[in-house]
Amino acid sequence: MYNLLVSNYNDAWNGDPIVFEKSRCITEYTTKELIKKYGDLTPAQISELKSFPCIFAYEDFCRKNPQFGKIRNVTEESIVRKETSMKIEYEVIELNNFLTFSEMSEMLWLLRIKDWEMNRTHWALKEVDLSRALAGKGIHLPQWASVNKKPVSITKHVFDVALSFPGEVRDYVEQLAGQLEIMLGRDSYFYDANYTSQLARPSLNELLQDIYKNRSKLIVVFLCEKYQEKEWCGIEFRAIQEIIMDRQQHKRVMFIKMDDGLVPGVFKTDGYIDGKQYEPATVAGFIQERVLLLSDE
């Protein structure tokens, strides 16, 4: 999770404590479950909120770059204008390549920021792994800001989805993977960049074929001219072809066509989604639908 704090002051986030009306703290643009869990802002709740990373942002009209950091302390202030207020002490942590205003505007869906939310001064809590979400932009957060969870072993784990693609379409797949993270959850999908350390091993071909053939409910293949030329795509597709040949299993395969290139083993009568027509977020929704259908069987 991460804290999103938005201010309408151009000189906000200069290191000085900021005061928000309590009615705007963990009550707006936050899920009902999180409001119930953290909305009272008790000392115990504040202690936990302080452990989450923060984006310190400005309302859209300011057009200023957001900043990264953490909350140091939150205390209740005296009543002002019949409203209880909260004094928020924080630390801005400088990162060399943190988000620009434009980059953040392009990531609203991925960061679970709602329409018009950036036009309101407030403090919201978002159920998003901020470290993972920003990694796609090449932004690496400090270790404390990453989700503290024991990694799954890809030698045993069963995935809802496995993605098979050549490097030429990685940018598209990277965006789609970010959406799957939100829709299906962490470790629900096999995307190579998420498991770099575990893929550095001998006999990797055997492990990949096992993942695609035996331990993925749905295999999504990004078809394009370069797919057939790639050695590792060929290794993956050998396992995928075994599934296609089994009429009881070929519903586990989903084709996304990225250009007009032909891939041996895929025919004109095979159905596909046109990746040139749909944005990554839309295709991620199609994948989620297929996973849900497979889960019902």
Describe the structure.
The chain contains nine helices and eleven strands. It has helices at residues 32-38, 43-49, 101-106, 130-135, 170-184, 196-199, 204-214, 231-245, 280-295, and strands at residues 2-7, 18-21, 54-58, 67-76, 85-92, 122-126, 159-164, 189-190, 216-223, 253-257, 273-274. The protein has 297 residues and is α/β, with parallel strands linked by helices. The chain is 29% helix and 21% strand. Helix 5 (170-184) crosses helix 9 and helix 7 (204-214) runs parallel beside helix 8. It has a six-stranded mixed β-sheet with strand order 2-5-4-3-1-6, with helices on one face. Strands 8-7-9-10-11 form a five-stranded parallel β-sheet, with helices on both faces.
A few lines on this structure:
This protein is of the alpha/beta class and 297 residues long. The chain has helices at 32-38, 43-49, 101-106, 130-135, 170-184, 196-199, 204-214, 231-245, 280-295, and strands at 2-7, 18-21, 54-58, 67-76, 85-92, 122-126, 159-164, 189-190, 216-223, 253-257, 273-274. The protein folds into two domains: 2-141, Roll (ph1033 like fold); 159-295, Rossmann fold (3-Layer(aba) Sandwich).
Terminal CA distance reads: 32 Å
Radius of gyration: 22 Å
Q: Major β-sheet, in short?
A: 6 strands, mixed
Number of structural domains: 2
For the biggest β-sheet, the strand order reads 2-5-4-3-1-6
Helical content (DSSP H or I, runs of 4+): 25-40%
Per DSSP E runs of 2 or more residues, the count of β-strands stands at: 11
Task: Provide the residue-averaged pLDDT.
Answer: 91
Q: How big a fraction of the residues is strand? A: 15-25%
Which CATH class of the largest domain? Alpha Beta
CATH topology of the largest domain: ph1033 like fold
Number of helices: 9
Please give the oligomerization state of what you see. Answer: single chain
Q: What class do helices, strands and sheet pairing give?
A: alpha/beta
- The coarse overall form would be elongated
Unreliable sequence segments: none
Q: Could you give the order of the helices and strands?
A: EEHHEEEHEHEHEHHEHEEH
CATH architecture of the largest domain: Roll
